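Budget justification aside, the reviewers requested a transparent look at the raw inputs and outputs of the sequence design task funded under Objective 1. We therefore reproduce one unedited record. The lines immediately below are the structure tokens for a 279-residue chain.
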């Protein structure tokens, strides 16, 4: 099931790239080159909210005409940048981007100095009070994209539930589990669906932004059985562009705003530890 999901995602992404690249050359204009507007793709929470704060409170004073386009998946924001439908995006971490570029032949890069925040990955359950309460043969849902699945397994390993093979990196899968004393079964799902899976599994490892979007919202700081630590974490989310656009004046201006004291205070005040400033 996992391989099918991944292949489908890659095929869809590649198909979207082919269609976009065969279109007429007006896409770049819509991304902002024509009138100076900077169009940025983002997932709604927290990236879209952070960008909305910048747009309403900081951008005009800095002379930046900013437009935010929201997407609810982890593929379209990158294909949109590659095709020129938007000029930049803000939704991902470096291991995910590296994997995406490798699989799709894209050349998207982080903007230097524009790592904004970390969304701690957390383990959630409707019935359990602590991770150790998982029973033998329990089912745990994890994200099915390569890097976030590996990240989820590492979180479980760091908290003693499983043990991974030595040397496993950012592409670990359940096949790379060396020890599984509770015989945990893993259910691999698209990341946006994980909060809705909580009624069907014993626990789920959920990305921070999708936890915040859940109904009701889930907080890594308050609701998670265990959650990632911010220190020495490679999964900070950053502003990204197509290679060669890193020094665009509008991009550099937005990067400065996104890592400003005002944005740090906004993150601290609004998310109460569910999202952590990374600068």
């Amino acid at each position: 099931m996992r391989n099918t999901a991944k292949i489908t995602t890659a095929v869809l992404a590649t198909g979207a790239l082919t269609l976009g690249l065969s279109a007429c050359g007006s896409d770049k204009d819509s991304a902002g080159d024509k009138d100076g507007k900077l169009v940025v793709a983002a997932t709604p929470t927290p990236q879209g909210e952070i960008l909305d704060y910048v747009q309403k409170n900081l951008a005009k004073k800095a002379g930046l005409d900013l437009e935010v386009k929201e997407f609810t998946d982890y593929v379209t924001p990158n294909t949109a940048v590659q095709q020129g439908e938007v000029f930049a995006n803000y939704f991902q971490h470096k291991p995910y981007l590296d994997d995406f570029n490798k699989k799709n032949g894209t050349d998207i890069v982080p903007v230097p100095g524009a790592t904004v925040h970390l969304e701690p990955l957390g383990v959630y359950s409707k019935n359990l009070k602590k991770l150790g309460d998982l029973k033998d043969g329990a089912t745990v849902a994890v994200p099915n994209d390569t890097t976030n699945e590996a990240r989820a397994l590492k979180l479980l390993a760091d908290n003693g539930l499983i043990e991974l093979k030595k040397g496993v990196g950012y592409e670990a899968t359940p096949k790379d589990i060396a020890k599984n004393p509770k015989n945990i079964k893993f259910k691999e799902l698209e990341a946006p669906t994980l909060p809705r899976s909580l009624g069907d599994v014993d626990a789920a490892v959920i990305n921070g932004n999708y936890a915040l979007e859940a109904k009701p919202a889930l907080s890594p700081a308050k609701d998670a059985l265990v959650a990632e630590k911010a220190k020495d974490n490679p999964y900070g989310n950053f502003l990204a562009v197509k290679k060669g656009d890193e020094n665009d004046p509008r991009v550099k201006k937005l990067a400065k705003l996104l890592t400003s004291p005002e944005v740090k205070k906004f993150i601290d005040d609004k998310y109460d530890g569910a999202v952590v400033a990374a600068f």
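The CA atoms of residues 156 and 162 lie 6 Å apart. Residues 1-30 have pLDDT under 50 and may be disordered. Computational costs for records of this kind are itemized in the attached budget.
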